[in-house]
Amino acid sequence: MSKRPIYIIGTILCSILAAVAIILIFITSGRDSEAFKIIYVCFATWMIFGIYRGVIHIFQKTEKILTPTFEGVAYHVTPISNHKAIKDFFNPLTMRFRTVGSLFIICTLWVCMVYFSPKFAIWFWVLLVVTIIVKGFLLVRYLQLNEAQNTLGKVILEQTGDIDVCRYDVTPQLINATDTTPEHVIDPIRSYVNVSGSHEDYLKDMSQFSIEQRHILSVNLYISAVYGDGHYGFFTDSVGMVYLDAIEGLKAIGAEKYAMILEEAISAFDGKNRPLFDLKRRVDKINELGLDFEKADDAIYSLDEYAEKIAEMQMVYIRSHVNNFLSTIHKNTDYGTRKTDLQNTERDTPADSRGQRHRVRYIGMSLQGRLSWHMPQMRSRSALS
Q: Would you say residue 342 has pLDDT above 90?
C-alpha cells in the first residue's frame, strides 16, 4: 500500500499546526508570554520540519544509481570514511520527524525549568542524558555498519577482481518506482546468460530464470541491437540467436506490430521454419541472399522513433508479473556453474576469509535493520535490496 496519502495528510496537518503556532507567537502577551513564545517558536519549527519531510516523501524519486547488494545486504563500491558517515548521521536535513519531536520536548522542559519551576530540572536532565546515550549508541552502530559495508565491498573486490555494479536485488519497490526502466530490472541477470556461445548454452542459462524474464531479456537484446545497428547488425551478431524468443516476448507484452516486423524480417531467410541459431550459418545465409533489412528498420523506426513506446510496454508487462522478476541471484544457491563469483570461489577461499565474509553479512543485516528506523537514508539503502 502506498504511503503517499499518509504523507499528504501529515503535511497538511503540520501546515495547519505551524500556522496556528506562528499566530500564537504574535498574539500571546501578559505574564509568562516570553516562555510561551519560545515554546511556540520551537513547536512551529518542528511542524515546518514536518512539512519539509512530508514534501520530500511526496515528491521524492528513486535514484537511478542503484545500491549494489549481496544476499540482500548493501555494500560500498567505494569506501566511505567515518568522518563522512558522522556528517551524514548528524545532518539535520536527514533527521526523522520524531527525532526533532524529542528535541522539542527537551526544549519545552528547559523552558519550564527556567521560567516556571526548578522541579522540571530532573525531567529535563533525565531526558537529555537518555537522548545522548541513545544517539551515542546509534552512532556507534552506524559507524559499525559503515565499516561492515566497506569491508564487504573490499571482500567482493578481492575475490572477484572487480565489483559488478549490476549486483543489486530486484525488488517490488524498484519495479514500481516511476523512473525504473526495463534495463534496471533485467540487467542483474544479463551477465548470467551467455549470448556469445551456442544456442544450447543460451537455453541452459535461461532455464534458471522465469519465462517472463526470458521474454523481457530477449526483447531488450533485440531492441538494443536494432536501435544501435539495425536489423542487419542484430542478425549478424551472436545476440541474433534470440530472434524467436524476441518474437514470443514481443507478443507476450502486447507489441504485436513489432513482432510482425521481426517476423517479416526473418521470413526473408525462412528463419521461422528453418531456425538459424548458429551465427556463421545465419550470416552466410543473409549474405548469400544479399539482405540488408532496410524495410524492417524503416518500419520499426517509424513505429517508435526512440524506442520509448516499447520501453513502456515492457514496464507494463513487468509490473503485471512482479513476482516473476524478483531477482534472487545472491540468495539462491541453485545456479549450477553460473553462481556469483563469490559463491564460485568460496570453496577455494581460506577459512578466515570465508568467516570474515559471513561475519560481515551478519553484522550488515543486523545493524541495517536496527538503524533503519533512525535515519531515512538507511531505509533508502535497504529499499532496493
A: no
Which one is predicted more confidently, 352 or 94?
94
For 39, half-sphere exposure in the C-beta direction (CA atoms, 13 angstrom radius) is 18
Q: How far apart are the first and last CA of the chain?
A: 18
Cβ count within 10 A of residue 333: 10
Count of all residues that appear for the chain in the document = 385
Distance CA 328, CA 167 (A): 10
Cβ 242 vs Cβ 202: under 8 Å: yes
- What integer is the mean pLDDT of 272-288? 94
pTM here?
0.50
**Residue ranges covered by each domain of the chain:** 1-54, 172-327
The runs of H, that is alpha helices, within the chain are: 4-27, 33-59, 82-89, 97-115, 120-160, 172-176, 182-190, 199-206, 211-235, 243-252, 256-267, 279-289, 294-303, 308-319, 341-345, 351-371, 376-383
Query: What region does 380 belong to: left with phi over 0, alpha with psi -120 to 50, or beta?
Result: alpha
- CA distances, 282 to each of 23, 69, 195, 238, 277 (Å): 78, 39, 15, 10, 7
Q: What is the architecture, at CATH level 2, of domain 172-327? A: Up-down Bundle (1.20)
CA 188, distance to chain mean position in Å, is 12
Cell numbers for 141: 552502530
